[in-house]
Amino acid sequence: MTMINAYTPGQGNLSQDDEALVQRRAKLLGPAYRLFYETPVHLVRGAGVWLYDTAGNAYLDCYNNVASVGHCHPHVTAATARQSMLFASHTRYLHDTVLDYAERLLATFPADLSHVMFTCTGSEANDLALRIAFAHTGGTGLIVTENAYHGVTFATSAMSPSLGSGVNLGPHIRTIPAPDSHFTTHVQAAITDLQRHGIRPAALIVDTIFSSDGVYADPPGFLTPAAAAIRAAGGLFIADEVQPGFARTGSHFWGFQRHDLIPDLVSLGKPMGNGYPVAGLVMRPEVIEAFGSKARYFNTFGGNAVASATAMAVLDVIATEGLQANAQSTGTYFRDALLALAKTCEILGPLRAAGLFLGQDIVTGGQPDGPKAVRIVNGLRGKRILISATGPQGHTLKIRPPLVFSRANVDRFMEGLDGVLQSI
């Protein structure tokens, strides 16, 4: 979760009104919040792939997978409104909506993954995954990648190195490098180190597109032996699908499917409700037995009727508008456009992509250049194109637009990127 030159009050080219808004925000929300970009964007409306500021200027959103099927999609917002006027209570009462959604959601998974529990956020889903993993394995040791992000709860922040040095990792956490040809070897070394310190391994958890590590999708299958290694040590394999899930990678509905692998637990989040706070955890039924026999689980808003109706509408849109196929075709077009530009621009280094999730390295002399990536991100913001940067050195452009992104939108992005690259 790289912050792009978090704004400092008094810097940038803000209007007097927006500068006052920044000061008001700092006074009311405190010091822990951050703003994107050297000059923050004051947004008031969204539609499809576009966001609009107070002056009515349109910004091309190439970053927000939260609004997975497009900002304020009318089918989704209508489903939310309709259910909220009818019934909005939680899962401790019987109602059909959550069960209808659970059946439809689980139908997108392999048959071995047949239980689902609902939360409000991906952080909560990962937190719940940890509780279940600890109960099932009797262990507490966790293995994550070196720049992973898995949430902001007390437990999940302790296994999210990308939050920075101000957030301590737990003593039960071991980090491994981003995927390379030695990924399984790194996993095994982490397992051995946990055991040497008397810590029983509980789980290997990975974001299956490794978005905070710089986006790593290939080669398909590299996760399979790593999952086998953690299982051989008595632990579980947890697939964090908060960012790659819901058709994002194009070729498959879930990121783990690119590896011909069935996880033990799968966490879901951001795109599930297109902006409405609904998330979940899908699992093998045997994994929940120890936890479920001893502990009750309850979430006031997780899985309530409004959340379920909203999430069902998102699946409707993905299916009826062919958004998985669009992620594949438009993503390929996007990838090819970046590769073509890289032939004439040495700043563009390696590109890693799957569907509409692209990680474009920025380099100088072939070496990672984080500061230059920041300049590009802020330059694009100046052209009203919104992206971010990621990776441990912050040198990877993180491009992750809504699934309704079109080839015309790609052309608009490429025009803006070309202009920014020429300027630097």
Write the layout of secondary structure elements.
Blueprint: H1 16-29, E1 43-47, E2 50-53, E3 58-61, H2 74-84, H3 96-106, E4 115-119, H4 122-137, E5 141-145, H5 154-157, E6 173-176, H6 183-196, E7 201-207, H7 223-232, E8 236-240, E9 265-268, E10 279-283, H8 285-294, H9 305-320, H10 323-342, E11 348-354, E12 357-364, E13 367-368, H11 370-382, E14 385-386, E15 388-390, E16 396-399, H12 407-423
Parallel strand pairs: 3-14, 5-6, 5-7, 7-8, 8-9
Antiparallel strand pairs: 1-2, 2-3, 4-10, 9-10, 11-12, 12-13, 12-16, 15-16
Helix pairs in contact: 2-9, 3-9, 4-8, 6-7, 10-12
Concise synopsis of the structure shown:
The chain is an alpha/beta fold and 424 residues long. It has helices at residues 16-29, 74-84, 96-106, 122-137, 154-157, 183-196, 223-232, 285-294, 305-320, 323-342, 370-382, 407-423, and strands at 43-47, 50-53, 58-61, 115-119, 141-145, 173-176, 201-207, 236-240, 265-268, 279-283, 348-354, 357-364, 367-368, 385-386, 388-390, 396-399.
Structure description:
About 35% of the residues lie in helices and about 15% in strands. It contains 12 helices and 16 strands. It has about 425 residues and is an alpha/beta fold. It folds into 2 domains: about 160 residues, Aspartate Aminotransferase, domain 1 (Alpha-Beta Complex); about 250 residues, Type I PLP-dependent aspartate aminotransferase-like (Major domain) (Aspartate Aminotransferase, domain 2, 3-Layer(aba) Sandwich), CATH 3.40.640. The two termini are about 25 Å apart. The mean pLDDT is about 95.
